[in-house]
Amino acid sequence: MQKTYEYDVLVIGSGAAGLSLALQISNQKRIAILSKNALSSGSSYGAQGGIAAVLNELEDSPSQHMHDTKIAGAGLCKQAAVEHIINNGKKCIQWLVEQGVHFTTYPSSNKNEPDKYHLTQEGGHSARRIIHAADATGRAVSDALIKKVEQANNIDIFEYHLAIDLITTKQENIKQRTCFGTYVLNCKTELVHTFVSNSTVIATGGASKAYLYTSNTDGSTGDGIAMAWRAGCRIANMEFNQFHPTCLYHPNAKSFLISEAVRGEGGKLIRPNGTQFMADYDQRAELAPRDIVARAIDHEMKRLGEDCLFLDISHQPSAFIQSHFPTIYERCLGFGIDMTREPIPIVPAAHYTCGGIVVDTSAKTDIQNLYAIGECSSTGLHGANRLASNSLLECLVSAQSAADSIKKQPQTDAYLPTKAPLWDESRVTDADEKVVISHNWDELRRFMWDYVGIVRTTKRLNRAANRVSLLQSEIHEFYRDFRISSDLIELRNLTQIAELIIRCSLKRKESRGLHYILDYPLTNKQAKDTVLTPEKQGKLL
Q1: pLDDT tens, 55-85?
Q2: Is 488 helix (H, G, I), strand (E, B) or coil?
Q3: Are the CB atoms for 259 and 136 separated by under 8 Å?
Q4: If pLDDT is split at 50, 70 and 90, which confidence band does 392 have?
Q5: Please, where are the H alpha helices in 335-457?
Q6: Phi/psi zone of residue 205: left (φ > 0), alpha (ψ -120 to 50 degrees), beta?
Q7: At what angle do helices 458-481 and 435-451 cross, to 10 degrees?
Q8: Taking the CA of residue 513 as centre, how many other CA atoms within 13 Å lie in the half-sphere pointing to its CB?
Q9: E strands of 430-519, at which residues?
Q10: Cα–Cα distances in angstroms (integers) from residue 295 to residues 290, 345, 363, 454, in the given order
Q11: Taking the model in full, what pTM does it have?
């Protein structure tokens, strides 16, 4: 039986961003957290490297961190966002420690002083500023936040609940559209329920599952970005898909990431014959930003006709490797690779969505009472390329900013709709050809990898546009006629995401940051965002 739930705040997503926000308002608001799988199933849990924040101001500074961020962002970072997020980094780290997160430390040289946090350095950073919990920072953060959320009295958790579409309406005498919640599929009962809320927060993560090879979990299907677009939000800079240079290459490894911190601690990228190559592409060699490293690996693989290249840190002491990278060491060993003695086979893979839902520094979207935080948002911090470990930083600060805004809203149900309509399934039947969904899913991810990948051309983008248009027609017909499922919802969202990526890529007539197109190899003097507005978009072709 369909139900209607009412809350002060509805948080869609259970990663670091969503959990942080919920905890910071739980003493004032009634909150529902929707997780489409288990609470610990998102990308935050698998984050290895750490969180970029200026904690040692004797050797680092916020202005230096801002400079590194803007260099990586290739001219597209928004100054207000960069300042806001980086200046609030230390405060958010302190908050995490208060929540019970245990970061890696080392003994102080002065026995009377407490242990100090171990800070590492990653590509694009000019100083050691990455605070971490060994090589499983995301797990440490997620475990601590999940424990707190489960203990909170004002937070209700709905695992295996997948948001379908936002509920919006225009009120009289108000031009701006307003969000009142969302329709949600209970993935276990397959019933659709209505969640009504005064404030709705999209914290659904990125969309790297649009690509065949990705470091992300299966849930990274761009649900929040697609829902926001359909509801009327502007979407920006979706052409900037970050491909992580080093994912483990093994038939059974699926999507295991080899942290950037391995290169930060001396790991070398080598060809099959053992020779290094990164110095041929950038003077920073292995510590160059991810877009440069990923393109270099991609070029070398194609030039040599190799299926993978290698990352070698075996020159470091075995004890050092096992203490700094215990998770990576154990996982590689499970596949018969001893990283203390031999190089790790690696390939680039889709890793991070730098664009997303346009928000301000309070995480507000174009729709009233609707917020977006974390990877699904476009704050202006990352610009054309995300600096390593700035993502968890953005999650935490944006969550804090959204929480501060939501706290100011009155504790009232007065502006909730008197009766939100229930989900209508009166005209649908059970699907008779579910193989269509799996086939379309596979086709989408393959042509996105081939045509809209690390290196692009206008011809390839137009091919992808043709294919996604045909897929959308098939999926729309399926969505209209048959009872929905989680696979169908995710496929519908991914095809929408693919269209947005292709639209943005075709609009950018230059190569900048993560968008490299052979037809326009130079970078324009003036940097401009690629902003898409729903009501202004016609057909893709």
Answers
A1: 988 889 999 999 999 999 999 999 999 999 9
A2: helix
A3: no
A4: very high
A5: 390-407, 435-451
A6: left
A7: 160
A8: 31
A9: none
A10: 8, 17, 32, 7
A11: 0.88
